[in-house]
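> example.struct
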């Protein structure tokens, strides 16, 4: 058995991962932005909401989270009795880093009585200061679940917040945070590239280019029935069911692997091929093997923080995605 996946075939790598996972009673969860080998070896691949639900429902005693730190922390909050491992502790998130618990406490003090809605891309400490969490697939439903007369602080993603404002017709107080990968996606050429009637445009709500796309929509330069704002899981479901033959995809490019699996006879092109999250790509096959072999790196959340964050995360998990923003329950490979 070779231990260097870079030199191994995928089958040899996958066999060793499966053997170790069985031995360690581990389930492997992977986000849609992971590198193809990690996606293909995982027990379950999905978007943030599907992965949180899967972590909460898992019967394995260990969860190896192939994603970024806030995702592993969320799994630990939902499954406190399980061992949660993240193969690289440096796999962070620029969006989650855009607000601290201290900043949130100061913001709350300016708006006493406001309901705090936190995107799941936040630290456990920020979740503990929040009333309810959301992901890109249920943010609209989460805001709709809050009485109309309540003020809402929505954090940390300003583009997702603006999308929720448009969908719900409500005015939110928005934190001015952004994901450096999605904010930088360049919409140049979108109108021309989407002109073909067989092409559909799928845009993640964290993207800075959503505003340009929606302006083009309002001008009639993009057809409404072929322009969708979707979570990554929603994109996978849409790829399988939409009649279009070609898709322009505005999000992190790791999703292309899942899209091509879901609809192998259709064509998928990134709107911006440079949209690559350096944190998601830190999880390599070598690090996954090491994580399984050595039990590293264990994620812990102080019990008092976890207890407060759990209320907000459990509310998020209970609220389903809106039709149109819907993701599938994830793609199970071996279940
Ligand atoms: P979803 O997969 O939930 O759409 O979120 C994308 C994301 O930003 C993960 O970092
Ligand atoms: Fe964070 Fe953006 Fe990377 Fe997602 S793509 S993990 S939001 S930095």
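> example.seq
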């Amino acid at each position: 058995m070779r231990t260097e996946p870079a030199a191994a075939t995928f089958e040899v790598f996958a066999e060793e991962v499966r053997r170790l996972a069985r031995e360690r009673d581990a389930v492997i969860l992977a986000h849609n932005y992971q590198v193809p080998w990690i996606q293909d070896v995982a027990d379950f691949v999905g978007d943030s909401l599907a992965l949180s639900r899967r972590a909460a429902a898992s019967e394995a005693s260990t969860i190896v989270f192939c994603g970024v730190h806030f995702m592993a922390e969320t799994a630990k909050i939902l499954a406190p009795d399980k061992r949660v491992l993240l193969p690289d502790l440096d796999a962070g998130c620029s969006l989650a880093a855009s607000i601290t618990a201290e900043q949130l406490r100061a913001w709350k003090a300016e708006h006493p009585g406001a309901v705090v809605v936190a995107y799941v891309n936040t630290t456990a400490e920020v979740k503990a200061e929040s009333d309810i969490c959301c992901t890109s697939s249920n943010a609209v439903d989460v805001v709709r679940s809050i009485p109309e007369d309540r003020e809402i602080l929505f954090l940390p993603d300003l583009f997702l917040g603006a999308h929720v404002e448009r969908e719900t017709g409500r005015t939110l107080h928005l934190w001015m945070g952004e994901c450096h990968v999605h904010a930088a996606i360049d919409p140049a050429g979108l109108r021309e590239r989407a002109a073909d009637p067989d092409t559909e445009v799928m845009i993640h709500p964290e993207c800075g280019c959503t505003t340009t796309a929606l302006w083009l929509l309002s001008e009639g330069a993009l057809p409404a029935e072929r322009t969708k704002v979707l979570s990554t899981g929603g994109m996978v479901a849409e790829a399988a069911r939409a009649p279009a033959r070609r898709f322009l995809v505005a999000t992190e490019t790791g999703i292309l692997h899942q899209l091509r699996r879901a609809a192998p006879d259709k064509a998928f092109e990134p709107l911006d091929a440079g949209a690559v999250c350096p944190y998601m790509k830190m999880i390599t096959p070598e690090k996954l093997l090491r994580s399984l072999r050595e039990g590293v790196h264990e994620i812990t959340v102080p019990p008092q923080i976890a207890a407060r964050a759990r209320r907000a995360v459990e509310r998020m998990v209970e609220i389903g995605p809106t039709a149109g923003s819907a993701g599938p329950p994830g793609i199970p490979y071996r279940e």
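> remarks
The chain has a mean pLDDT of 92.
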